[in-house]
């Protein structure tokens, strides 16, 4: 296969995975926030907080739907464009991804459905428990995805038999340090995304003077607290991953011997090295800017000016761009650091892709990326529209009280 086809397929995967992760990071960050707000509302019986749960929960459901749909397309893309990876490592990589599919597409979706349609139809604690399961399975799903990804960078838990990888130690795959560190970093960076998203939406309503029952003033504070809590863990979990992104990682039972490894890496021309540098620099700069944002926010909070410094509220409105950029940059940095290997010292990227002509690669790129761009654009528009409506107006709003008593309440609409 030509280098042009390989580059096109790599570009396609990078773009689609990056778009997919934008919404995954949002839902991972929003889930614990919604859970905590609902727990507080259930415990105190505060109707205003429960209306806030409906509002933030509506935004979560929109992001979740796009994350699931784009994830399904990602699996189709893996089957079509990366047949070499499936042929050699399919039985090993499939194990964590199968568990992830069960967690995300069955358990999580089922309990989210119960949560969405269970308002006023089940006990308040049972309803809260449904979203607790949703939150737990969301992070469990991320854990298994990163277990599969960690195996690519630090291959463990299998043996090569007849040119195919055979799973021999599931626990080694599950608790691979590369995957564990990747999961920890993903979890805390998602709090960056969720916290600043909450703060941004809340700040816009405070600026507009549409703060119902103080919901959005609390949102600004809670969003900043989430970000502040994640600042140090983001740096720690990110920094400890460098051993898995820079330089070779020793592995056993290699498909390539030392001479073969040296030949592959010598022949590879790192034409994307500058992208790798930009991705790494983006993560560092964004982290520093977020730290500065937290310091200014802390000063404003202590001085009781958090709701009055309009310039700072406007900064918060646009702040979600920072963690999203860093999240995509971090993913690019992690994946490019493994090149020219798809599975380090076992399978090159050229061997992992499906052989196809440059024309077919162009068609695949255009079809998949166009579909993802349309989906992302529509979802972003919907998120912004619902966010601007405010409490009591989103897709999970309380049913209308119009019908006569004998007709009963209208069902919750979504």
From TrEMBL:
Membrane topology: Multi-pass membrane protein
GO biological process, one term: aerobic electron transport chain
Family that this chain belongs to: Belongs to the cytochrome ubiquinol oxidase subunit 1 family.
Keyword Transmembrane helix: yes
Protein name in the entry: Cytochrome d ubiquinol oxidase subunit I
Any one GO molecular-function label of the UniProt entry: electron transfer activity
Gene Ontology CC annotation, any one: plasma membrane
This protein's UniProt keywords: Cell membrane, Electron transport, Heme, Iron, Membrane, Metal-binding, Transmembrane, Transmembrane helix, Transport
Listed InterPro entries: Cyt-d_ubiquinol_oxidase_su_1
PANTHER family per record: CYTOCHROME BD MENAQUINOL OXIDASE SUBUNIT I-RELATED, CYTOCHROME D UBIQUINOL OXIDASE
Predominant place of localization: membrane
Coiled coil feature spans: none
Places the protein is found: Cell membrane
Transmembrane annotation, as ranges: 20-43, 55-74, 94-118, 125-147, 180-203, 224-244, 285-304, 311-333, 361-384
Entry keyword annotation includes Cell division: no
